[in-house]
Amino acid sequence: MTVKINENYLLLKSSYIFAEIAHRVDKYQKEHPDADVIRMGIGDVTRPLPKAVVKEFKNAVDEMGQADTFRGYGPEQGYDFLIEEIIKNDYTPRGIKLDNDEVFISDGAKCDTGNIQEIFGLDNVIAITDPVYPVYVETNIMAGRGGPMGEDGKYQGLVYLPCTEENDLVPALPEEDVDLIYLCFPNNPTGTALTKEQLAKWVNYAKENDAIILFDAAYEAYIREDNIPHSIYEIEGAKEVAIEFRSFSKNAGFTGTRCACTVVPKELMGYDGEGNPQALNPLWNRRQTTKFNGVSYPIQAAAKAVYSPEGQKEIKESIDYYMKNAEIIRESLTNIGLKIYGGVNSPYIWVKTPNGMDSWEFFDTLLDKAHVVGTPGVGFGPSGEGYFRLTAFNTLENTKEAMNRISKLSF
Amino acid sequence: MTVKINENYLLLKSSYIFAEIAHRVDKYQKEHPDADVIRMGIGDVTRPLPKAVVKEFKNAVDEMGQADTFRGYGPEQGYDFLIEEIIKNDYTPRGIKLDNDEVFISDGAKCDTGNIQEIFGLDNVIAITDPVYPVYVETNIMAGRGGPMGEDGKYQGLVYLPCTEENDLVPALPEEDVDLIYLCFPNNPTGTALTKEQLAKWVNYAKENDAIILFDAAYEAYIREDNIPHSIYEIEGAKEVAIEFRSFSKNAGFTGTRCACTVVPKELMGYDGEGNPQALNPLWNRRQTTKFNGVSYPIQAAAKAVYSPEGQKEIKESIDYYMKNAEIIRESLTNIGLKIYGGVNSPYIWVKTPNGMDSWEFFDTLLDKAHVVGTPGVGFGPSGEGYFRLTAFNTLENTKEAMNRISKLSF
């Protein structure tokens, strides 16, 4: 006998996109030590935690240092004091009713969107938009739902829903039978959003076809337009067909602090092998209580402070700051004739590369001629080829400077 | 088509042991509102975070509140500043050499011991000691390695290694072929430890039988005797056959703060379907980078402070405090003629119930006659029937009072 590895891991054809980017930038910097490279590639925030958050974070750390206020193991599902703030602020005002035990606090939407597939059988058919956040794809490959990658760059067992210039980046409903559909809107990487009517089509599709939508709302705080839903549960009946993921990473700068939540409504059902409905809420609860031990108490106290009046004011300022950058990027690139998407309800701008350049050619051109780093769209899936992602997370000064440099290029 | 759930979840026969305990205690308190119930059941610490930890924790939160020291996404594997302290303090002094990229920081040993099985194939045979920390069992059932539970209370696909009075709680080597062996020493729940010679037998077994040991060292800080290994890598050749899990939960009071680490040596190999060796270190790295986003920066800074001279002094005081409780429990129970195990190199005392009582009978007796709550051993596996766990994590005063009460009982 020998120990067998999970061979599905060997199927992963990682593009190692961020490693390749780092490699090319390092090489360029060595060859051009004076080049002032501006990074607009990784989707990470740069502005500090709000003061209101820092204050409560530290207060909670002090509590942990005193015997009478010390807290050991907390509930794996999160503290009610945070869950209640989330419901009161993010859901109730939109007419969405949730019980506390439908909201699960976690250490990140990456973890939750990666782990959620565990509660589903291996024989479900998975649909993803293309381009896509790679975690949805890779966690299903690792579990054995995707099979090998074909020459077209697609894992053969997954259903890809292309988002390209042809459909204005709005994915069409699947033609095949699919069971689980990952949707992220406002979208990473394309920065586009779905209107209420557009999202309602997906909810109806899921109802009619007994599918479930895994809805990643990590960027909802960047929505500026009225008709864009902040939660999929704004769509009537969505609680019967959707799980929703939220995060404090992008709205409150928690990328290095780690806190998020996942909503699993109690009416949401899967089916066992005999066709009996099985509620998904207790399955996720079982998953979390068995494999997770809750989010650090001081971090949950910090996240609660996001909802204080001062916290809300501060996060609004940060998001306004990033969205001002997004506007500058949009205007600058539009002015020089590039076709762009996104940046209106999200911090991402998705650029159609000019003159039929492929994603990496455009990457090399921007690095070499403007010393600006972005992310080649092909890194997010085959339909990302010929596109390029820029983020609004750098400073205003760097964003302006980057746009000045790019504006001087001729394509 | 309908969405299929992971049916393995339906195989879980949860004893809901802590829920059942809570239920019985609540009922008892309602019927006896004046009873001063002392809880010695759950393995959770009670003493606050060390002052040195609180200080660095708060400093790091302040850094997160300033633009020039703010940190966004950190390495999924953890910051080198913490990894280096772990290696320098926990491994180098014991003659164990580790590279930084063999140590993975996480938010808890529960998560890591639960997730580690993902990198292994579903066709491995799993061995567990019995009684056992339920996470090892249940995460394998959820993945599909355990099958249904038989009438003997054992999942039919798992290999149980009984630890009972007959073998002095030292598990015998498996007679069947097994691939993955979970060992936790000092043990939760029995509180017993293995000597270097005893552990070496397991390492040799694993080498000779191409098995891998998943070694949970969460309680190593409680070791008091010289010949008890703090790390499995103290045994020669163990890096070829063992993964080790550590935690800041029990040594530094991090149960509510969340930080741990897992060591996956680079020489450790599994095999693919064609019999080719595949290093496990990059597989775990892939798992963590895909499904995890790193531990909060302030928490890693706090964990680093555990290794400062002040931090070391403070955690030693806390552990001494708990171990004094353990000694009181040991002496008191021995004096009244109970047979006990553990409590010498761990905060757990494993009591053989008197007069052939079953675990729950003894639970009810202690609750009713002494108002003391412990954990029925049967909750940790069928071989735990007829045993009972008490923990040393309460206050000195409560521990003394509980022992006074129990000492007055006659069995």
UniProtKB/TrEMBL annotation, chains A, B:
Residues reported in the UniProt entry to bind substrate: Y16, G43, K110, Y133, N188, N293, R389
One annotated GO biological process: lysine biosynthetic process via diaminopimelate, diaminopimelate-aminotransferase pathway
Record has Transmembrane as a keyword: no
Annotated keywords: Aminotransferase, Pyridoxal phosphate, Transferase
Chain ranges of the Aminotransferase class I/classII large domain: 36-406
EC number: 2.6.1.83
GO molecular-function terms, A-Z: L,L-diaminopimelate aminotransferase activity; pyridoxal phosphate binding
Cofactor: pyridoxal 5'-phosphate
N6-(pyridoxal phosphate)lysine, modified sites: K250
InterPro entries the UniProt entry points to: Aminotransferase_I/II_large, DapL/ALD1, PyrdxlP-dep_Trfase, PyrdxlP-dep_Trfase_major, PyrdxlP-dep_Trfase_small
Principal EC category: transferase
Catalytic activity: (2S,6S)-2,6-diaminopimelate + 2-oxoglutarate = (S)-2,3,4,5-tetrahydrodipicolinate + L-glutamate + H2O + H(+)
Binding site for pyridoxal 5'-phosphate: Y73, A109, K110, Y133, N188, Y219, S247, F248, S249, R258, N293
Top-rank lineage group of the source organism: Archaea
UniProt pathway annotation: Amino-acid biosynthesis; L-lysine biosynthesis via DAP pathway; LL-2,6-diaminopimelate from (S)-tetrahydrodipicolinate (aminotransferase route): step 1/1
Record bears the keyword Transferase: yes
Biological role: Involved in the synthesis of meso-diaminopimelate (m-DAP or DL-DAP), required for both lysine and peptidoglycan biosynthesis. Catalyzes the direct conversion of tetrahydrodipicolinate to LL-diaminopimelate.
Family that this chain belongs to: Belongs to the class-I pyridoxal-phosphate-dependent aminotransferase family. LL-diaminopimelate aminotransferase subfamily.
Self-association and partners: Homodimer.
Name of the protein: LL-diaminopimelate aminotransferase
Organism for this UniProt entry: Methanobacterium bryantii
